[in-house]
């Protein structure tokens, strides 16, 4: 009887530990996403478009980005309106509303767009897999 109880206890502890490790990995992945998203958003908000472009998954951007086209853009507001996560947690789509101005203009414009991020298990980082935003 004692051996059976010990076996149940050990099995339960191992199961809890393994479950905890999976939870830690998921927490680490989600925390990493939050930090990368904040860094990307700050890069766009402050006009550092070359840094922001470094978050695009390598090999995904088919044509070169014309960074000069972004020179007159100032981001006034950046809001995540909705978040859609895949079942496995390795893909997240954000529905954004971005308010921006062109330097020298008084009007604020807005664009709504979806932005999808994908987690790469090998590099343990998130990559932007949608095109770089274009402003009218």
Structure description:
There is one protein chain. This protein has helices spanning 2-45, 49-53; strands at residues 73-85, 91-102, 109-120, 125-128. Residues 3-18 have low confidence and may be disordered. The longest helix is centred in the N-terminal third of the chain and has 44 residues, at 2-45. It is globular. The protein is built from 2 helices and 4 strands, in the order H-H-E-E-E-E. It has a 4-stranded antiparallel beta sheet, with helices on one face. The protein has one domain (2-128): Roll (Nuclear Transport Factor 2, Chain: A), CATH 3.10.450. The protein starts with a helix and ends in an 8-residue tail after the last strand.
Give the helices and strands as they follow along the chain. Answer: HHEEEE
Quaternary organization: single chain
Architecture per CATH nomenclature, i.e. the level-2 architecture: Roll
Number of helices: 2
Distance between the termini: 75 Å
CATH topology: Nuclear Transport Factor 2, Chain: A
Largest sheet: 4 strands, antiparallel
SS strand fraction: 25-35%
């Amino acid at each position: 009887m004692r051996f059976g109880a010990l076996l149940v206890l050990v099995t339960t502890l191992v199961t809890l530990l393994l479950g905890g490790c999976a939870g830690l990995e998921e927490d680490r992945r989600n925390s990493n996403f939050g930090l990368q998203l904040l860094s990307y958003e700050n890069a766009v908000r402050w006009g550092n478009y070359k840094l922001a472009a470094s978050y695009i998954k390598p090999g995904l951007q088919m044509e070169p980005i014309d960074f000069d086209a972004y020179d007159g853009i100032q981001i006034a507001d950046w809001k995540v309106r909705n978040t859609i996560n895949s079942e496995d947690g390795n893909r997240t789509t954000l529905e954004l509303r971005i308010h921006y101005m062109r330097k020298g203009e008084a009007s604020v414009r807005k664009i709504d767009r979806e932005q999808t991020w994908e987690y790469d298990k090998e590099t343990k980082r998130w990559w932007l897999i949608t095109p770089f935003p274009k402003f009218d």
